[in-house]
């Protein structure tokens, strides 16, 4: 049961986000935020080019595992309201 | 957990804590030896009738009591740094669990696969069952698989808190707006207790942490039942 669907090119089940050398230290705030941004940017770009958004699933998996649920909800609200501070 | 008349640290449940325990024994022994030596020398000085009023220089003893403390400090520093670097080793976690501090309870989120989240409140003293620990038990324990490396991400929804489990050698501050990472690895199953370790208001002493470490199969069964 441990692990859900693994986004390509991974084989087998999604365990948990791997070590990211861009964020090697204790403060993982940016790791969560960067993957959240990357996911939305990826979706926007793939949709604009009319391509499948399947490769964006990796970023979704990472931010979904790392980011607190309340943060994601708040950011989604802000995106909906147009008040999100990040560049997507 | 802590027990009455406890003198030292709690039994270690993780490899890092084992190292810390041994390091503490090593350093405390040095401290006791130096303290008893100094105490002994003071007692000698206070109980002697001999006097010496013409000391001019004491090069030899001065050299000894400079070199020897330097050696002792190095003997403390080397194991200390070894453990410090050991704590920073890159490991590949198998599971990520988030914990958010609130006034005055912890909430836990397991979102690697499905969204599982719950709150963990202290059980009030009046509602304790016989044998349960006062100010330490919670309604929903944090169930985790044993012998697996787990990434813990700690933050807060309001004020500063700190998520601490002494037997695993863990204490990480919960800071609003920041996501702090620590690594958890238990060598054995069991219940491991901790308490909030950063003053956070009136009920700071009443928001404990209880980890329930179980074999992987039980963890999977539990997480399926919690969804």
From TrEMBL, chain A:
Pathways involved: Energy metabolism; oxidative phosphorylation
GO terms for cellular component: mitochondrial crista; respiratory chain complex IV
Disulphide connectivity of cysteines: 32-67, 42-56
Topology of this chain in the membrane: Peripheral membrane protein
UniProt keyword annotations, A-Z: Disulfide bond, Membrane, Mitochondrion, Mitochondrion inner membrane
Subcellular location: Mitochondrion inner membrane
Superkingdom of origin: Eukaryota
Keyword Disulfide bond among record annotations: yes
The protein's role, per its UniProt record: Component of the cytochrome c oxidase, the last enzyme in the mitochondrial electron transport chain which drives oxidative phosphorylation.
Family: Belongs to the cytochrome c oxidase subunit 6B family.
Protein name: Cytochrome c oxidase subunit
Source organism of this protein record: Capra hircus
Gene (name only): COX6B2
Automatic annotation (TrEMBL), chain B:
A molecular function GO annotation: oxidoreductase activity
Keywords: Copper, Electron transport, Magnesium, Membrane, Metal-binding, Mitochondrion, Mitochondrion inner membrane, Respiratory chain, Translocase, Transmembrane, Transmembrane helix, Transport
Any one annotated GO CC term: mitochondrial inner membrane
Membrane spanning stretches: 27-46, 66-85
Free-text cofactor note: Binds a copper A center.
Protein function: Component of the cytochrome c oxidase, the last enzyme in the mitochondrial electron transport chain which drives oxidative phosphorylation. The respiratory chain contains 3 multisubunit complexes succinate dehydrogenase (complex II, CII), ubiquinol-cytochrome c oxidoreductase (cytochrome b-c1 complex, complex III, CIII) and cytochrome c oxidase (complex IV, CIV), that cooperate to transfer electrons derived from NADH and succinate to molecular oxygen, creating an electrochemical gradient over the inner membrane that drives transmembrane transport and the ATP synthase.
Domain (Cytochrome oxidase subunit II transmembrane region profile) ranges: 1-91
InterPro entries reported for this sequence: CcO_II (IPR045187), CcO_II-like_C (IPR002429), CcO_II_C (IPR034210), Copper_CuA (IPR001505), Cupredoxin (IPR008972), Cyt_c_oxidase_su2 (IPR014222), Cyt_c_oxidase_su2_TM_dom (IPR011759), Cyt_c_oxidase_su2_TM_sf (IPR036257)
Protein family membership: Belongs to the cytochrome c oxidase subunit 2 family.
Keyword Transcription regulation: no
Cofactor: Cu cation
Keyword Zinc-finger belongs to the record: no
GO biological process terms held by the UniProt record: ATP synthesis coupled electron transport
Pfam families linked: COX2 (PF00116), COX2_TM (PF02790)
Reactions performed catalytically: 4 Fe(II)-[cytochrome c] + O2 + 8 H(+)(in) = 4 Fe(III)-[cytochrome c] + 2 H2O + 4 H(+)(out)
The Cytochrome oxidase subunit II copper A binding domain, residue ranges: 92-225
Localization annotation: Mitochondrion inner membrane
Protein's UniProt name: Cytochrome c oxidase subunit 2
Membrane topology listed for this record: Multi-pass membrane protein
Organism of derivation: Capra hircus (Goat)
N-terminal signal peptide: none
């Amino acid at each position: 049961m441990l692990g859900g669907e693994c986004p390509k090119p991974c084989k087998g089940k999604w365990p948990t986000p791997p070590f990211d050398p861009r964020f090697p230290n204790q403060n993982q705030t940016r790791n969560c935020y960067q993957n959240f941004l990357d996911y939305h940017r990826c979706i926007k770009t793939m949709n604009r080019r009319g391509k499948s958004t399947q490769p964006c699933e990796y970023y979704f998996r990472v931010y979904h595992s790392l980011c607190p649920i309340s943060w994601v909800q708040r950011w989604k609200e802000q995106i909906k309201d147009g008040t999100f501070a990040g560049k997507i | 957990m802590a027990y009455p008349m406890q003198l030292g640290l709690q039994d270690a449940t993780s490899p890092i804590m084992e190292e810390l325990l041994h390091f503490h024994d090593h350093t405390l022994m040095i401290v006791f030896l130096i303290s008893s030596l100094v105490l002994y020398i003071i007692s000698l000085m206070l109980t002697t009738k001999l006097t010496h009023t013409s000391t001019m220089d004491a090069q030899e003893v001065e050299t000894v009591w400079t070199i020897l403390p330097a050696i002792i400090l190095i003997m403390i520093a080397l194991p200390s740094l070894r453990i410090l670097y050991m704590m920073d080793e890159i490991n590949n976690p198998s599971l990520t669990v988030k914990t958010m501090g609130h006034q005055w309870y912890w909430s836990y989120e397991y979102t690697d696969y499905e969204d599982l989240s719950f709150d963990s409140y202290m059980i009030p003293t009046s509602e304790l069952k016989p044998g349960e620990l006062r100010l330490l038990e919670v309604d929903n324990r944090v169930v985790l698989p044993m012998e697996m490396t787990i990434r813990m991400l700690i933050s807060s929804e309001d004020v500063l808190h700190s998520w601490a489990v002494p037997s695993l050698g863990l204490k990480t501050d919960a800071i609003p707006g920041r996501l702090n990472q620590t690594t958890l690895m238990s060598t054995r199953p069991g219940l491991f207790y901790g308490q909030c370790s950063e003053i956070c208001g009136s009920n700071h002493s009443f928001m404990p942490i209880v980890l329930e470490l179980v074999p992987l199969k039980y963890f999977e069964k539990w997480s399926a039942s919690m969804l």
